[in-house]
Design brief:
There is one protein chain. The protein contains 23 helices and ten strands. It is mostly helical. Among the domains are: 146 residues, no CATH class; 215 residues, no CATH class. It has a two-stranded antiparallel sheet. A two-stranded antiparallel sheet has the order 3-4. Strands 5-6 form a two-stranded antiparallel sheet. Strand 9 and strand 10 form a beta hairpin. Helix 3 crosses helix 4, helix 11 packs antiparallel against helix 23 and helix 21 crosses helix 23. The radius of gyration is 26 Å and the shape is globular.
């Protein structure tokens, strides 16, 4: 029964890689897989925005106060599978649905996207049915039943008669579509295939695929392939995966994954004391996030290169805000431009970027603990225990006897109750002390020359530059990215029985030369993305 689901290893280049042969490699056979039960994922705020934009065009204003996203296992993508909607959230989604619907019906260009029929009377059920037939499957990512369509036509007609206008009434039909659970959630149930294996339906698979690779809904072509049933075949699924990865919306999808993994959304609330960090500004968080995302786009989608270069490359993208912070010439007068950082500056890769350095620091100081903890938990997927309740974990304040962070950390580690945890985090963070709390380079702290040496497991490093290389070579880095992508794609943490499959994908990542684009494709074609267990 499983033999029919063993997927061929497609190594086809995308349109942007035409003429470039993929390096062949071998790995072990795909392991036997016992599928987990399906989950229903709520749209994240960004996915809500992206879906509205794909349906009605860019520029529609979305209220900022929808149901907040929640991280579970470090990811909003997993949190979306376990969180529901509060009573207040229901009211907010209702209000947002009407706001969006009114903007659509008030704009002739957006209104035309719904369909070409012109109502002959205030209540024109035939015209309403045509518009719903166009919008409904795109909004709910599946065909509507006759009963659902008829209900929406009735809503539009009754509202039109009450309000004295067709468009005013159809606003209620659009709002009904947008506040429905069929829009706000991505329900998955699955079906029994002809081979006796339970799988996602073609419509569910199309939605899984587009939100994984585009962070948004299926387009017209993907919906057509789902409607034909061809998406359930190995060949057509591979064709669609390649098409989606070659599409411009793949940049949106990659950004969503990188942002979720690296917790870049937290930069929206970045707060620094300007009297201490004079290079901080209101736009620093947004600029820092964009640098990291542009670098990821370039490396993964433009170059299809080894993802470990994210930790070691001096090639980056800067605007004037970051160029001033990093003390290098701005590559562009307006916006971002590509540049190469000087090797003499000691800064390279993600560990040298403000998106990491400023976020993993306090409002008034650096934090060797936050920086070391992030590297352990996010980049190496290592679990660190929480401190005991009531334990004072604060590192001593600077004083005449303890002028540098290294000296204060050394005293802190003399406390056995603190040392057990901090000794696996702080020696990593000390390697980044040449960067202050916003990421500005410094040679001294309180008049003392900084010693940036440190240790990551059994490897010692002299400074932040060497730390980037040590981390890139760490045996856990590639498997950690793989594990995070698996969770992001499936919307849940892996079960124990799935570990062989997770490891199999990690082997593929390694053998491919650590190409993230290969891994995204590999996961999308893998059994965890296609087959599903019984509903619990």
């Amino acid at each position: 029964m499983r033999a029919s689901l063993v997927l061929p290893l497609f190594l086809l280049a995308s349109a942007c890689d035409e003429g470039v042969e993929e390096p062949p490699f071998e790995r072990g056979a795909e392991p036997a897989y016992s599928p987990e039960a399906p989950v229903a994922r709520r749209l994240t705020y960004d996915q809500y925005q992206n879906t509205v934009a794909d349906l009605f065009g860019e520029g529609i204003l979305i209220p900022g106060s929808l149901e907040p996203d929640t991280r579970v296992s470090g990811l909003y993508a997993v949190g979306a599978s376990v969180t529901s909607i509060s009573a207040l959230g229901v009211e907010r989604y209702e209000s947002a649905a009407f706001d969006v619907a009114e903007q659509v019906l008030a704009d002739p260009t957006r209104r035309a996207r719904l369909g070409s029929c012109s109502p002959g009377t205030v209540r024109d059920d035939a015209c309403a049915a045509e518009l719903i037939a166009n919008l409904g499957p795109a909004a709910w990512r599946r065909p509507l039943t006759d009963e659902e369509s008829a209900r929406l036509v009735t809503i539009a007609g009754d509202a039109a008669e009450a309000l004295g206008g067709f468009d005013a009434g159809f606003t209620y039909a659009v709002a009904a579509l947008l506040q429905s659970p069929h829009f706000l959630f991505r329900p998955e149930v699955g079906e029994l295939g002809e081979d006796g294996v339970r799988r996602y339906t073609a419509w569910e698979l199309a939605t899984r695929l587009s939100f994984f690779l585009w962070d948004g809904p299926p387009d017209e072509e993907l919906r057509a392939v789902a409607a034909s049933g061809a998406l359930l075949t190995d060949a057509e699924l591979a064709t669609q995966v390649d098409r989606l990865l070659a599409d411009a919306r793949a940049r949106r999808g990659l950004r969503a994954f990188v942002s979720d993994m690296l917790q870049l959304a937290d930069l929206d609330s970045l707060t620094k004391d300007p009297t201490i960090f004079v290079y901080t500004s209101a736009g620093l968080g947004a600029s820092a996030r964009e640098q990291t995302l542009l670098d990821a786009e370039s490396l993964v989608l433009d170059e299809d290169a080894d993802l470990r270069k994210l930790l070691t490359s001096t090639d980056t993208h800067l605007d004037r805000t970051l160029a001033a912070l990093y003390d290098v010439p701005a590559p562009a007068r307006e916006g971002f431009g590509a540049t190469r950082l000087p090797s003499s500056g000691g800064r390279r890769g993600f560990l040298g970027q403000a998106s990491f350095l400023a976020l993993q620091a306090h409002a008034t100081s650096t934090s060797v603990t936050l920086r070391g903890k992030f590297i352990r938990e996010v980049l190496l997927c290592q679990n660190l225990p929480s401190p005991p309740a009531g334990l004072n974990t604060a590192i001593p304040e600077a004083s005449e006897d303890l002028r540098t962070m290294r000296e204060r950390v050394a005293q802190h580690l003399e406390d056995p109750s603190c040392a057990s945890c901090h000794q696996v985090m702080d020696p990593i963070g000390l390697g980044l002390e040449n960067f202050d709390g916003v990421g500005r380079w410094r040679e001294e702290e309180n008049g003392v020359v900084i010693d940036p040496s440190g240790q990551l497991d059994q490897e010692t490093f002299a400074d932040a530059w060497e730390l980037g290389g040590t981390l890139a070579a760490h045996e856990d880095f590639g498997p950690c990215v793989n594990r995070t992508l698996f969770r992001y794609a499936t919307g849940r943490t892996e079960a124990d029985a799935e570990q062989p499959l997770v490891d199999w994908h990690a082997d593929g990542l390694q053998e491919s030369g650590y190409r993230l684009r290969f891994l995204m494709r590999d996961v999308a074609l893998g059994p965890a993305f296609r087959v599903v267990g019984e509903v619990q």
